[in-house]
């Protein structure tokens, strides 16, 4: 939680797209920007990049007003995936309300996925967040490529963790909104228990999700991606 | 670290218009708008407070429509959210360009806001990363310094410990050497005693027999001489031969010869016996020993090392035997006395004193020799420390004395004498049953 102001009736949340370098975090944001209605979201801000590699972060804000008048702003960030930008990752991760871990489905990226997830665990601990209670979803991106880890394998690896896993191709645009929607839903559950969103602000989960995730009509791109 | 400014910036913190724009950014645009035809321009924040304005000062644009003027406004956006607006007031005659001016100035301001926001975000995260990296470097540096300190300490301790162990080993080795020396001296003494005692026995016994036999022969010789004294010519011949052979002198000297020989043999016998008892080869544990007798015995054994003309002054005051390990006492005495005897090649005055002082036994051996320089006194007990030339000694004498006294719970001190020479004082506790 970046900010919560009861008097000004304002809440600013932070969701973070984490993962190894080149796994498609920025592409996820670009697709959200593309596939979601302009109404209810801000502009995608891409901070200076070099050779298409994120060195600071990208930001896509979303807005929602609860029936009570509480203004909710959800800022979705990407972190730089390259190992050397760990300090920046930590900075972006601070006070996160939810994390989407974007993994690279290609066989050769297995080790990078593992290292990055382990780095996520370390950094969450360092910034004082508990990975067991933090809303977390995993997305296996690049499903459109050959030579990728099978869904069965992914299922077997993650089943025991209870973490929702999605298959996606951010480049083609599928699975991106589903991943985001689940992350938003998980985030709501946690917020509701702390801030009584439904009871005090008349905002239930479906309204929260629907308010933040508004697909453009008839894009049809969400059909192939889905939860494993 | 605490001296450094602590920037607690969280990525995502909300920015207001006033955070993102400065007068330098805004004012030229407002002035340009007025030059282009606007009468008044205002930039307001979310709460409608005026942040910057330019042009007519006839009250706020939004406070009411002035007759003959038109107004228009455009939202200012941060991250896609309105955070304020820009409002223009222009004469009705300029209504046509009002929208154009507004679009230009509003667009410019929004661009400035976005680029300022990006600049701030990158600067802030950059600063944060730099600070964090710096903190981490400091922490790493602290850990390295600590670890270096540990290693240095370890290295230093190691040296000290090696020195300690070396000294201990040297001591142990010295002890071993001394023990071996003692054992070999003892074995040698026992062997020599055994080898000498047998021949000495028959030399001694034969000398007595020989003396008896010779007396008989002399008796017979004198009988014959007396018988032939009247026999003129033969007697004269016999007398001449008697004189030629100096038999009067021989007969007279014979007794002395025997006495001296027997005395000599007896002295050899007593030396051998001293050697044997002095080495205490037969007694390994403690025994009751008369210190004074032991000192004299040692002096006797060292007779051949005693320079000619040496004067020995004895002052013995131990009246009862002391309990100690005899072999060790011998070592102490031999080493100390030998040092004293070697301190001067002639005109040596050796003062040996013993006594009891409270529950202590003391022994003092003083010489008028060359003395030990002050700076060497602390080193003379070190194993293998010697000032003598190679072959003159292996530098264990005083070490042995020191180690033995330490075992006894006593001490050895070297005292310089104002009149020259050295006095060595040895003292150790009397056993409970002594005295």
Describe it for me?
The complex is a heterodimer of chains A (228) and B (435). With 228 residues, chain A is α/β, with parallel strands linked by helices. Chain A has a single domain (3-227), classed as P-loop containing nucleotide triphosphate hydrolases (Rossmann fold). Chain A is 34% helix and 23% strand. Chain A contains seven helices and eleven strands. Chain A has helices at 25-35, 86-93, 110-126, 151-158, 176-195, 197-201, 205-212; strands spanning 3-5, 10-18, 45-46, 49-50, 53-54, 58-65, 71-78, 98-104, 136-141, 165-167, 226-227. In chain A, strands 1, 2, 3, 6, 7, 8, 9, 10 and 11 form a nine-stranded mixed β-sheet that branches. The mean pLDDT of chain A is 90. With 435 residues, chain B is α+β, with helices and mostly antiparallel strands. Among the domains of chain B are: 17-141, 2-Layer Sandwich (Beta-Lactamase); 283-435, Histidine kinase-like ATPase, C-terminal domain (Heat Shock Protein 90, 2-Layer Sandwich), CATH 3.30.565. Chain B is built from eight helices and eleven strands. In chain B, the strands form three sheets. A five-stranded mixed β-sheet of chain B has the order 6-8-9-11-10, with helices on one face. In chain B, strands 2-1-4-3 form a four-stranded antiparallel β-sheet, covered by helices on one side. A two-stranded antiparallel sheet of chain B has the order 5-7. In chain B, a hairpin with a 2-residue loop joins β8 (349-357) and β9. In chain B, α3 (95-227) packs across α8 and α6 (291-301) packs across α7.
């Amino acid at each position: 939680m970046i900010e919560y102001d009861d008097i000004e009736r304002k809440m600013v949340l932070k969701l973070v797209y984490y993962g190894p370098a080149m796994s498609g975090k920025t592409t996820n944001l670009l697709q959200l920007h593309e596939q979601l209605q302009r109404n209810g979201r801000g502009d995608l801000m891409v901070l200076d990049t070099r050779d298409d590699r994120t060195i600071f972060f990208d930001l896509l804000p979303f807005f929602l007003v609860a029936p009570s008048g509480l203004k909710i702003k959800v800022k979705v960030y990407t972190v730089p995936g390259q190992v050397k930008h760990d300090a920046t990752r930590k900075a972006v991760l601070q006070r996160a309300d939810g994390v989407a871990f974007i993994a690279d489905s290609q066989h050769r990226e297995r080790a990078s996925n593992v290292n990055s997830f382990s780095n996520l665990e370390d950094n969450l601990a360092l910034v004082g967040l508990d990975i067991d209670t933090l809303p977390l979803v995993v997305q296996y991106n690049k499903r459109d490529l050959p030579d990728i880890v099978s869904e069965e394998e992914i299922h077997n690896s993650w089943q025991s963790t209870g973490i929702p896993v999605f298959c996606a191709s951010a480049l083609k645009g599928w699975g991106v909104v589903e991943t985001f929607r689940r992350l938003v839903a998980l985030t709501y559950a946690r917020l509701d228990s702390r801030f009584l969103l439904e009871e005090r602000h008349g905002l239930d989960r479906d309204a929260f999700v629907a308010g933040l995730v508004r697909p453009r009509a008839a894009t049809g791109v969400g059909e192939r991606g889905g939860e494993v | 670290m605490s001296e450094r400014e602590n920037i607690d910036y969280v990525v995502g913190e909300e920015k207001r218009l006033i955070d993102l724009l400065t007068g330098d950014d805004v004012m030229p645009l407002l002035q340009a708008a007025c030059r282009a035809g606007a009468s008044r321009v205002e930039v307001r924040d979310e709460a409608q407070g005026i942040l910057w304005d330019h042009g007519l000062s006839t009250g706020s644009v939004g406070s009411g429509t002035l007759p003959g003027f038109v107004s228009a406004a455009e939202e200012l956006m941060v991250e896609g959210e309105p955070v304020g607006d820009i409002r223009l007031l222009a004469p009705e005659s300029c209504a046509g360009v009002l929208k154009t001016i507004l679009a230009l100035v509003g667009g410019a301001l929004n661009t400035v806001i976005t680029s300022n926001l990006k600049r701030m975000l990158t600067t802030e995260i950059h600063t944060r990363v730099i600070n964090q990296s710096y903190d981490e470097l400091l922490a790493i540096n602290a850990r390295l310094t600590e670890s270096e300190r540990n290693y240095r300490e370890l290295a230093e301790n190691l040296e000290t410990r090696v020195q300690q162990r070396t000294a201990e080993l040297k001591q142990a080795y010295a002890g071993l050497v001394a023990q071996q020396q003692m054992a070999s001296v003892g074995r040698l003494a026992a062997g020599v005693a055994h080898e000498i005692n047998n021949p000495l026995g028959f030399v001694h016994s034969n000398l007595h027999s020989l003396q008896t036999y010779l007396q008989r022969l002399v008796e017979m010789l004198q009988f014959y001489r007396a018988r032939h004294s009247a026999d003129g010519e033969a007697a004269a011949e016999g007398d001449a031969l008697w004189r030629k052979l100096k038999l009067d002198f021989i007969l007279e000297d014979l007794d002395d010869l025997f006495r001296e020989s027997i005395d000599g043999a007896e002295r050899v016998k007593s030396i051998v016996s001293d050697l044997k008892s002095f080495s205490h080869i037969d007694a390994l544990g403690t025994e009751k020993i008369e210190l004074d007798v032991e000192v004299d015995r040692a002096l006797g054994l060292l007779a051949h090392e005693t320079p000619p003309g040496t004067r020995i002054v004895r002052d013995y005051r131990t009246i009862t035997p002391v309990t100690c390990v005899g072999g060790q006492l011998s070592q102490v005495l031999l080493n100390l006395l030998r040092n004293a005897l070697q301190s001067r090649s002639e005109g040596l005055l050796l003062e040996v004193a013993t006594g009891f002082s409270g529950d202590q036994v003391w022994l003092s051996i003083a010489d008028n020799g060359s003395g030990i320089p002050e700076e060497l006194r602390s080193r003379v007990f070190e194993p293998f420390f010697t000032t003598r030339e190679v072959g003159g000694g292996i530098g264990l004498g005083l070490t042995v004395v020191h180690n033995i006294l330490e075992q006894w719970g006593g001490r050895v001190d070297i005292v310089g004498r104002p009149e020259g020479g050295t006095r060595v004082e040895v003292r150790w506790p009397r056993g409970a049953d002594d005295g």
